[in-house]
Amino acid sequence: MIYEVRTYDLIVRGVPDTLKAFSACIEKRQELSPLVGFWFTEVGPLNQIVHIWKYDDANHRAEIRAEAVKHDWWPPKIRPYLLRQHVELCIPWDFSPIPEPGEHGPYYEMRSYMIQPGYMPQSKERWKQAIHERMERSPMSVVMETDIGDASKIIHIWPYGSLDERQAVRDKALADGLWPPAPKPGDELEVQTQENKIMLPAPFSPMR
After folding, report:
1. Binning pLDDT at 50, 70 and 90, where does residue 65 land?
2. Band of residue 184 on the pLDDT scale cut at 50, 70, 90
3. CB–CB of 113/194 below 8 Å?
4. How far apart are the first and last CA of the chain?
5. Domain boundary assignment for the chain
6. What is the DSSP string of 135-155?
7. What is the pTM of this model?
8. What's the mean pLDDT when you consider all of the chain?
9. How far apart are CA 30 and CA 94, in angstroms?
C-alpha cells in the first residue's frame, strides 16, 4: 500500500474556487480509487491544499491516473488558481494506524521531518518505542516515509478537536518525557529539519 500526497500552492484567495471545482467531480474520481483526505491550510503556508490518495502500489496508481484523465471531468479545471504542485509517494510505517474516514478533527496537524540519509531505521526505532503511549494521549492518523519525492522524509498527521487541545497534549507529553522520543545514549539526533501546518478538512473530505 502507498499513499500519494499531493500539495498544491494556490493564488491568494484561490482556495474557495478550487474546492468548488474539486467538489463537482470528487465523487466520480473516488469511484476509481479511494481519497484518504482533502484539506486546506489554516496555519503555516497559506493558500495551500493537501489531498492524499490510497493505492496498492505505484503500478496501480499509474493505471488509475491513466483511466481518470480519459474523462473530461478530471483533473478539475483549476489552472487559473494553481501556482505549483508537489507530489510525493509514501509508504506507511508498519506500526502506523490506517487513516479512516470519519469525524476526527476538525484540526489536522501535518508534520514533515527531513532525516539524515541512512538514519531512517534509527528514527523508526525511536518512534516504535514511544508511539503507542503517545497515541494514548491523542490519536495519530498516519506516519509514513517518502519513497518518491523528497528523499529521507517522514510525514505524520495528527487530528485534534481544537488548537487548545493540541497544545495541552503536546505540553503534557513533553513534560512527562514521553514525546518527542529521545535518542538512545550515544545516538546522534537524526532529524535535520522540521515543518508543520495546521489544516482544516474540505466539506467533501472523508476525514473530517
Report:
1. very high
2. confident
3. yes
4. 22
5. 2-201
6. HHHS---EEEEEEESSSSEEE
7. 0.96
8. 98
9. 26
